[in-house]
Design goal:
Low-confidence stretches: 27-113, 422-428
Number of helices: 16
Helix content: 55-70%
Strand content: 5-15%
Strand order of the largest sheet: 3-2-4-1-5-6-7-8
Structural class: alpha/beta
Shape: elongated
Order of helices and strands: HHHHHHHHHEHEHEHEHEHEHEEH
Largest sheet: 8 strands, mixed
Radius of gyration: 48 Å
Distance between the termini: 161 Å
Mean pLDDT: 78
Amino acid sequence: MDNPVVIVAVIVAVVVAIAAFFLLRKKEPDQLGEPRPEPKPEPDKADKAKPSEPTKAEPTKAAAEKKPAGKEPPSAEPAKTEPAKAEPKAEPAKAEPAKAERAEPAKAAPSARKPSQEDVAAIRKGLANTRGGFIARLAKLFGASKEINPELLSQMEEVLLQADVGVATTQKILDKLRDRLSRKELADEDRVWKALREEAAAILSIPGGPVRMRNKPATFLFVGVNGVGKTTTIGKLSSVLSTTGEKKVLLAAGDTFRAAAVAQLEGWARRTKCPIVKGKDGTDPSSVVFDAVQKAKTDGFDVVIADTAGRMHTKSPLMEELKKLRRTVEKALGAPPDEVLLVLDATTGQNAIQQAKQFHEALEVSGIVLTKLDGTAKGGVILGICDEMKIPVRYIGIGERVEDLREFDAEAFAEALFARDEEESIAA
């Protein structure tokens, strides 16, 4: 073994054997069909591909997202065209007009209720005495002053009080005008007249509208003291309802204590061709009205208008009698009367307000008819009545003719009362 040649030979033999061993191990997997160890470099490729795969996959996902987006329109388009999804679009379109229709009356109410020139002219003519009275004094007051100031408003107070507007109502109107003056809204005379019209319309605009007709037959009780024009108003209203309104009207002569009242109502019955129920002189008024309601129910009348006794409102027996009459109507009708209409004479001024208070306390008056406005220079009383009583005015009487009984329109009345134009300037 000490021979070097032998040692070298052994070493070479060992090295060759080892090399052959490793060569054989490498070839065996290839022969066994395992090329997957070869892909060991491919892990590098795979690893390199993996970063690129996400990048490739991302566009793929993006493309996939776009593709669904591109595909969804077909599926979404039917959904849009489906009635379920089309309706939401249609609903706003329908809802907008609906809202507009509801909003229009509120916004358009002033313009919708704006009176025609014919209405204003007719009322203005009927208010000739009032316009020549306190309205003329107001016009002179404005004409004498070149400046609208607090002193001028103080002078207006006296004029309004003399027109029977009433202390509380006058103060309310002047407070509103002073407030406007402080905001520099009353720069000239025309603006003051406009402000007066607006404040008057606000006071007179009590919700109520025309007479109510809830029952069949609708039953109206007319109350008021003697001499206010109660029976005449009943006759005019029956004419309006039976001709213009085409209602079948029955009259009830409930003022059995005055033969003249029954005779007057009979005259209107003939004139308007409306049947009338009456009793003998001194008959209990309640029995007459009860019979009238029963006849109306049997014969198919639309409206019963009942006259009542009109002794002074200070007489307590009258109020008790009227309360009984109201209870009788409720018994015969099965419901309260549709209207308890208090007739007031505009020429009585502040006394009309006192009457309204007492009748309302006893009977729950539902509406007011203000007569003889054409015969007074103090038509401002209507402002005091509405402001203090908060009872709507249903009708006003501005003349003797049937058509002079007019449904009350607050704006038309205010415009006619405080009208200001060149041809009718009454300041001179």
